[in-house]
Structures are given as structure tokens and as C-alpha cells.
Amino acid sequence: MPAASESRPQSPVPTGDTEVDSLLDELRALDDAPVSSHGATYSALHEGLLAALNAEGNTPPHAPAPGPAKDAR
Known about the structure:
Elements lengths: L3 H4 L10 H8 L12 H17 L19
């Protein structure tokens, strides 16, 4: 059986968005938390990420601005 440190996933890759990176840092707390609390942590993380992604003006520079769909013809 692998050692516990070998079976843990790597830390999330930084996104460059300080709010998102801060939320993802909370995943590190799961290492020491009982499994029974993981669901609540994931739920809170999901809600925080949704809020960050839905924040006004949060369009990445490489992504097109939201707008009407272009005609595919």
C-alpha cells in the first residue's frame, strides 16, 4: 500500500486569479480534516468558485466577451 503522502493529489496549479487561487488553497485543509467534513468543504468551494466566475467583469483576456452568438453560416 502506498504511503499517505504518495496517494494525495498535487496542489492545484495557480490560475492567476487571486480570488480563485485563494479558494483553491482551501483544498489543503482537507489533508487534516475528517472525511465527514469534506462534502461541506467541497460545497463551499463550489459556491465560492461560482461566485468568482459569475462576478461582473471577470472575463479572461483570452476569452471573447459575452454577447449574442455569431451566425455559423
